[in-house]
Specification:
With 329 residues, the chain is an alpha/beta fold. It has a single domain, classed as TIM Barrel. The chain has helices spanning 45-58, 77-85, 102-112, 126-133, 138-151, 171-180, 207-215, 283-287, 292-304, 324-327, and strands spanning 2-3, 9-10, 12-16, 63-67, 92-97, 116-120, 157-160, 184-188, 220-222, 234-238, 244-248, 261-264, 269-271, 280-281. The strands form two sheets. A twelve-stranded mixed β-sheet has the order 9-10-11-8-7-6-5-4-3-12-13-14. Strands 1-2 form a two-stranded antiparallel sheet. The longest helix is centred in the first third of the chain and has 14 residues, at 45-58. The mean pLDDT is 92. GTP binds at residues 14, 65, 96, 157, 261-263.
């Protein structure tokens, strides 16, 4: 098992398939984009599947989430999903995506074994979407969500980040829209993971503010059971249910004590925390002919040193060198 010195066990693996993205969200990267990883540095499809196989069969991983960058840009995605779905024991398989391209791939991904998707959408207004992402692709995301629901990739979850003075007043409208379309909406506090290092705590739209904005239109009651466990989102029933809404308060109400995640970057580095400033190299071991047992031991060692918390509450907190697009969600 992947156990750390604070008694936590990682069972949820986040796998970044690429650092590339076809959007340029203002809270993630500059308009001109970033210096992408060179192709030889990226794990191959076979290497990805082998590492996931080790994680599932040797290390107790039960959930695999594919992320990016934008994972739909990975040419071999459907094949990777199919091979991971064939593992024994079979892990739960999900995908976090911006939704662009999901309309044409949802059915194939479902057939390959994908269980569900999380789609990022911060606004219902195409003009605001263009401001936030610097791309005119709002309709593609909406169409992708529809395709995911029709393909059975449910529950379809929508992730929204609120930016002060830009889309923060849309919170109730986003929830009403999500309920009407049978999507589960989760608001995520903006995290200090932008490539520009322009994040400011004073600009943060907090979980408390989000709850207040939603409560002005909806009756929110805590989901029962109220014990959240390792789930990142605090969830409420909307107007008595069955619709639910969640808030992931990574900054103001961190959930580090129950964290069950480990992360693998597109270039084969293990990160034991989203905000870690250190990584452990598995790619070199894979390419030098190391055994599965040796790679598993390297992974265990990487997780053993996980810190108690993210450090976001420390005035001396420093952002990791890699931005979110290069880490994976």
């Amino acid at each position: 098992m992947l156990i750390d010195t604070h008694g936590r066990t990682a069972t949820d693996l986040r796998v970044s398939l690429t650092d590339r993205c076809n959007l340029r969200c203002t809270y993630c990267m500059p308009e001109e984009g970033l210096q992408w990883l060179a192709k030889p540095d990226l794990l191959t499809d076979d290497e990805i599947v082998r590492l996931i196989d080790i994680a599932v069969t040797c290390l107790g991983i039960t959930e695999v989430r594919f992320t990016g960058g934008e994972p739909l840009l990975r040419p071999g995605l459907v094949g990777i999903v199919e091979r991971v779905a064939a593992l024994q024991p079979r892990p739960q398989i999900s995908l976090t995506t911006n939704g662009i391209g999901l309309e044409r791939t949802a059915t194939a991904l479902k057939a390959a074994g994908l269980d569900r998707v999380n789609v990022s959408l911060d606004t219902l207004r195409p003009d605001v979407f263009k401001t936030l992402t610097r791309r005119n692709r709002h309709h593609d995301v909406v169409d992708g969500l529809t395709a995911a629901r029709e393909a059975g990739l449910t529950p379809v979850k929508v992730n929204s980040v609120l930016m002060r003075g830009i889309n923060d007043e849309e919170a109730p409208d986003l929830l009403a829209w999500a309920v009407a379309h049978d999507y589960e909406l989760r608001f995520i506090e903006q995290m200090p993971l932008d490539a520009q290092h322009g994040w400011r705590r004073s600009d943060l739209v907090t979980a408390v503010e989000i709850f207040e904005k939603l409560s002005a239109r909806f009756t929110l009651t805590p989901e029962v059971p109220s014990v959240r466990g390792s789930a990142p989102a605090e969830r409420w029933l909307v107007d008595g249910g069955p619709a639910r809404v969640g808030v992931i308060a990574s900054v103001t109400r961190p959930f580090c004590r129950a964290c069950d995640r480990t992360r693998l970057t597109a270039d084969g580095q293990v990160r034991n925390c989203l905000f870690a400033r250190e990584e452990s190299d598995l790619r070199t071991a894979v390419r030098s002919g190391a055994s599965d047992q040796h790679i598993a031991e390297l992974w265990r060692a990487a997780m053993w040193g996980k810190k108690a918390g993210s450090g976001l509450d420390d005035p001396a907190f420093l952002q990791p060198e890699r931005p979110m697009s290069a880490i994976g969600g």
